[in-house]
Amino acid sequence: xxxxxxxxxxxxxxxxxxxxxxxxxxxxxxxxxxxxxxxxxxxxxxxxxxxxxxxxxxxxxxxxxxxxxxxxxxxxxxxxxxxxxxxxxxxxxxxxxxxxxxxxxxxxxxxxxxxxxxxxxxxxxxxxxxxxxxxxxxxxxxxxxxxxxxxxxxxxxxxxxxxxxxxxxxxxxxxxxxxxxxxxxxxxxxxxxxxxxxxxxxxxxxxxxxxxxxxxxxxxxxxxxxxxxxxxxxxxxxxxxxxxxxxxxxxxxxxxxxxxxxxxxxxxxxxxxxxxxxxxxxxxxxxxxxxxxxxxxxxxxxxxxxxxxxxxxxxxxxxxxxxxxxxxxxxxxxxxxxxxxxxxxxxxxxxxxxxxxxxxxxxxxxxxxxxxxxxxxxxxxxxxxxxxxxxxxxxxxxxxxxxxxxxxxxxxxxxxxxxxxxxxxxxxxxxxxxxxxxxxxxxxxxxxxxxxxxxxxx
Length: 458
Hints:
The chain folds into three domains: 42-264, Thrombin, subunit H (Beta Barrel); 267-360, Pdz3 Domain (Roll); 365-457, PDZ domain (Pdz3 Domain), CATH 2.30.42.10. A hairpin with a 2-residue loop joins strand 21 and strand 22. By secondary structure, it is mainly beta. Strands 2, 5, 6, 7, 8, 9, 10 and 11 form an eight-stranded antiparallel beta sheet that branches.
């Protein structure tokens, strides 16, 4: 089994499966009424929904480097150009118009991430060049704007009112075949831990969705948007009746921030937590292992100001039982800055309520001089959210002082450090662990838009 984003990547020709139809002498129309009752149909609702669902085609130019042909002697011998070759990747997905006046389209981050060209095609055949307003990889949400008139937009429903068993309809462009509608029910709510994005609160549905449905609409029977289709769980890559959509409440919060700021500003409690095992629950006299135990509190953090302490057990969040750390992380990442979290805290056998106001999440950094004197003047930072979850291993070089050894060696702000010597670097914590190693020759493996290279710092 595998979890797959629903973007359809084009790597070759289009294969079509032709199914022969049995001949028939005629086709009878369905009666409009049976026993005096009108025939049930989704068609009237879909007449208002389908014009708001669009096809999104994106092109990304990727530089291709070959270390062998990067050698200047080899290039000179074969008469090769010094500039790297490019490969154009194309992908197809879907989107939903949510503001007809301003032309805003909601879709998935993985449909348009890194795209150089975005084309949005409406149901009526009109095509427009899309402007990327902003993306949020942590929730897999993106907003695109098109300069179009006479658009149809979908109203957003309150997805918090969804119930398991509610009927829903999925609309999108699977496999690039054209707009397609399928129906089903809400199979589950609050799904998380699925991979693909950091903050998760997925709607699970059995409405058939396939590659190309990414960014498409999941609507209720009133034609209101309840979710943005995002991924499927499948052994084959095609629909197996287990699909996931991002709730409209979540997409609305993210969309508002992307339109206002071009990015999402997230808050943090500044606490580290650990899951409670059944054995720990028994020792603590708890009736169930639900909740998390606080293992550390950052100085000056929102949790610290609220009085949280190591050893506290968090049992409730905003009046509801707290199941696990993912639920707490979702609240930190999905609620706006300045939101107040009401926490049920079990301390020394006494249950109390603590209110904590989310503050800006700090971005940890490290002065290179603490690692090695040759790296004085170079600052390393955790990668920004736009690089997390997208192959963004390593740490970002956030600043390089002019005239420093790092600057003379060719380091630049924005480069990503992915290795020191033979040691692969995947986090700032791992880099900090190399403090005091002091190798005789300091060799860094650095990545940028042109590829990876070795840099020797003296």
